TrEMBL record:
Protein name: ABC transporter ATP-binding protein
Gene3D superfamilies: P-loop containing nucleotide triphosphate hydrolases
InterPro entries: P-loop_NTPase
Keywords per UniProt: ATP-binding, Nucleotide-binding
Superkingdom of the source species: Bacteria
MF terms (GO), sorted A to Z: ATP binding
Keyword Thylakoid among record annotations: no
SUPFAM superfamilies from the UniProt entry: P-loop containing nucleoside triphosphate hydrolases (SSF52540)
Similarity comment: Belongs to the ABC transporter superfamily.
Species annotation: Bacillus thuringiensis
Length: 94
């Protein structure tokens, strides 16, 4: 099992992509289970499943659907809802 805490945190975009591709390869070829913690929606879009936590509680979960751009958009939409407060203006994309 690989536990990765912000694996792309201080990397440029090319190095971040390389790291994520290595992790995907390790997962697929070696059947290695992974848990990744990140604030980076691009890194999250490489995952099979994204779980959002708010105020210490499981808030929302989305799964990869064979369309990375759509999955990334779903992550971004979920993040915008995660930060919403009932008194805030909506930031959800239509």
């Amino acid at each position: 099992m690989v536990l990765a805490d912000e694996p792309t945190g201080n990397l440029d975009s090319k190095a971040s992509q390389d790291v994520m591709e290595i992790l995907i390869q390790l997962n697929k070829e070696e059947k290695t289970a992974m848990m990744l913690v990140t604030y980076d929606p691009v890194a999250a879009s490489y995952c099979d499943r994204v779980i959002f936590i708010k105020d210490g509680q499981l808030y929302h979960e989305i799964c990869y659907n064979d369309n990375r751009p759509l999955f990334y958009q779903n992550i971004m939409d979920s993040l915008s809802m995660l930060g919403e407060n009932k008194n805030d203006f909506s930031t959800t994309r239509i």
